[in-house]
Amino acid sequence: MPEAAVHVGSGKVRELYALDAERLLLVASDRISTFDVVLPTEIPDKGKVLTGLSAFWFARTRDIVPNHLLGLGEDGRSTECRRLDMLPIECVVRGYLAGSGWSDYRRTGEVCGHRLPAHLAEAQRLPEPIFTPATKAASGHDENIDRTTAADLVGVERLVEVERIALDLYRVASEHARERGIILADTKLEFGIDEDGLLVLADEAFTPDSSRFWPADDYVPGSSPPSFDKQFVRDYCAALGWDKTDPGPELPDNVVAGTRARYVDAFERLTSIAFDAYLDDPAVVLS
């Protein structure tokens, strides 16, 4: 840790440090959250998977939108980043009907103001990917919102730009993933504004924490597919009858090992880089 780093905040997974007026240091822990509650059990190497995958995607999407990455730490879990004025919305893109989108659709036939065809099944591919913003909750659960509400938060012109870029990023990432046997069902992106007023991709990108990854070979619409993300933990916690409030349940060894294996598998399939090679030289994901 640089001597000049000053701790300025903690997220569910990341610790945030100020390096100076223009730079931040983000350190991804091995913590895991589900239903917006941080669980007491950590997943070994999870933070390194998130950091490595984000760096991989940042390097490969710079032609679509600039990002906040300035440098990747030798520890494989820290990144030096630009300070930004973060937009107050989560930018979610859905290519398939799952999660809260599926819940909203069953109740209203819509997802964030998008009227969808009738009689769609759970996990079914949508006719086209849709942009479905959500609030950033300081505590509790994020809430899905429509474009009108999102425009009130960020402005109409900025929202149009964010929607276009988020959809472009999703298309590029989902095509890359599909070529490697993975379906990118949906993803959450975050953007900030730099000192020149330009939109910048920030936080993380296309990781198992921010995305639903399904193995293409096992995909069947009509049920919740197996996944490479933390759905494995969600399913375990839901089966306990837990009320989804603090404190969360401890995870048994088999769930910890199974979750780590899923995260590492996603990393290796998406990057075509052995995870051990990344641990030896984190910069390999930037090449």
In short:
The protein is of the alpha+beta class and 287 residues long.
Key structural traits:
5-stranded antiparallel β-sheet; 16 strands; single chain; 287 residues; alpha+beta; 7-stranded antiparallel β-sheet; 7 helices
Detailed description of the structure:
This protein is α+β, with helices and mostly antiparallel strands. The chain is built from seven helices and 16 strands. The strands form four sheets. Strands 8, 9, 12, 13, 14, 15 and 16 form a seven-stranded antiparallel sheet that branches. Strands 1-2-3-7-6 form a five-stranded antiparallel sheet. Strands 4-5 form a two-stranded antiparallel ribbon. Strand 2 and strand 3 form a beta hairpin. Helix 1 (46-60) packs parallel to helix 6 (253-271) and helix 3 (147-154) packs across helix 4. The longest helix is centred in the middle third of the chain and has 23 residues, at 156-178. It is globular and about 55 Å long.
Pick out the low-confidence regions.
none
Q: SS-based structural class?
A: alpha+beta
> How much strand?
25-35%
Query: What gap, in angstroms, lies between the N and C termini?
Result: 25 Å
What is the C-alpha radius of gyration, as a whole number of Å?
A: 18 Å
Biggest pleated sheet: 7 strands, antiparallel
